[in-house]
Design goal:
Blueprint (H helix, E strand, L loop, with lengths): L1 H15 L12 H8 L1 E13 L2 E12 L2 H21 L3 E17 L2 E18 H14 L3 E8 L2 H29 L6 E9 L6 E3 L20 E13 L1
Antiparallel strand pairs: 1-8, 2-4, 2-5, 3-4, 5-7, 6-8
Helix pairs in contact: 3-4
Length: about 240
């Protein structure tokens, strides 16, 4: 056994007599210069388009003595309102809220039940040019609340505006790069990376003031004016020079 130990000893010593050395990779001066000579610019593009569609939220709210009475009256009023909206071929018609709650009166830190309040709300989309007269007729059909009015553009118009905003943002970034490099007597070489931020579908413009939607008279419809929607896009370019 002792002979075996001395027989392998030179091999073990040989393995430990040559340490492993890690030599880090050092890029050349030319490579370092190439990495450093880049310019990053961000351009912005803005496009405004008219809103032609209106998202509306209407409600039927009833107060009464008993929960059953209130719920039945709300159901009748909502059915009448929904039938009217369907006859006008509105889009995206759906129920967005149903609520029944007790109605309390507070006096001298005491609460007394005086009845119930029931509410049913629906939302829909209609052309902006039609919304004024439709709101007036909806009130006649049973609506007692106008909770929200939002304006938006057609989806095709928004899609085209997004593309145009991206083009404008790209041109803006290129012009910024050219202005900086020409001032420093440099020439742009190539675009190394492109990053897009934005050009998302904008949120509808919301008008929440029911007072502005009041009916003037039987001969006049409620005036509703849409406005414009703004689409923004940002493009970031990294350019070598």
């Amino acid at each position: 056994m002792k002979k075996s130990v001395f027989y392998y000893l030179p091999i073990v010593l040989t393995l430990f007599s040559y340490p492993i050395i890690n030599i880090p990779f050092i890029p050349s001066a030319m490579a370092q210069e190439q990495i450093m000579k880049t310019l990053t610019v961000t351009g912005e593009g803005t496009v405004r388009i008219p809103t032609t569609l209106t998202d509306v939220s209407l409600g039927v709210e009833i107060q009464g003595n008993t929960a059953t009475e209130v719920q039945n009256n709300v159901a009748q009023g909502t059915s009448s309102l929904v039938d009217f909206l369907r006859s006008r071929s509105v889009e995206r018609l759906q129920t967005t809220g149903v609520r029944l709650q007790p109605n309390y009166q507070y006096n001298n830190n005491q609460r007394r039940l005086i009845g119930y309040i029931g509410t049913n709300t629906v939302t829909f989309r209609v052309k902006t040019e039609e919304v004024g007269s439709l709101l007036d007729d909806a009130v006649k059909a049973g609506a007692t609340r106008i909770d929200r009015v939002g304006f938006t553009a057609e989806e095709t118009a928004i899609s085209e505006a997004q593309k145009e905003a991206l083009k404008l943002a790209t041109l803006d970034a290129q012009k910024q790069a050219e202005a900086v490099l020409s001032t420093l007597n440099f020439q742009s070489q190539e675009i190394i990376s492109i990053s897009i931020n934005g050009a998302n579908a904008p949120q509808p413009q919301i008008m929440r003031s029911p007072e502005t939607m009041r009916t003037t008279s039987a001969a006049d419809s409620t005036p509703v004016i849409g406005g414009e929607q703004t689409i923004r896009a940002m493009v970031t370019l990294q350019i070598s020079y």
